[in-house]
Amino acid sequence: MTDVDDRRTSPIRHGQTWTEQDFADVMQAVRQDCTLEEVAEAVGRSVNGLRNQLRRMLPADERHLPADVVLMRIRQLNRNGDYDWLAAMAEQPTPEWQLRWEADQRSRAALLENARVVGVGALPDDHLMALAKATLDCRDPLPSDLAEVMAKELSERGLTAALADHARERLDGILARILRQEPQIRWQDESGDLPPFGYDEPPYVAAGGRHPWA
Prior knowledge:
Blueprint: H1 20-31, H2 36-42, H3 47-56, H4 67-77, H5 85-90, H6 96-118, H7 125-136, H8 144-156, H9 160-179
Helix pairs in contact: 1-2, 2-3, 3-4
């Protein structure tokens, strides 16, 4: 046995609040290579109660370790005799939401990097602009990750101003049609399907292929 504080002869202090001195006694016993049972006896606690408290002496990001390896891990941390267990106990675990946010940020960074090699980032400027212009006429919103990649590429290549000019021209054309009160007639091709949005000269079936107001 060891010369640790002779609490092994004291009654089990089950249910009593753990004090800083209790943890200091635990570390003293750990430094003397006591077994888990010997440490528990030295501080007058049950083995199960000791296991629960030992986790608190680990760094916050290691408190998930299985109970049967916690004592061994504390010994490893203290192999040079300078483990600051008080500082470790003061650490607060990272909130779950922050862990998810950090994982999402890493995923997005990987996505953007990959897009430069095989995705949108690999397109030449004229192809990227053609794709961006096509999205202006798209009825459904782009997936958020694709929109983020495109926005980043357009910005880094200095193409956002050109795209904004194109968008203004499209808007001016729409406003001009509205102000002239031109009829908005939906048309179909011979197959009966509606064409992609944005065609300016559709073959109107009802008008024999001509605009009804031409």
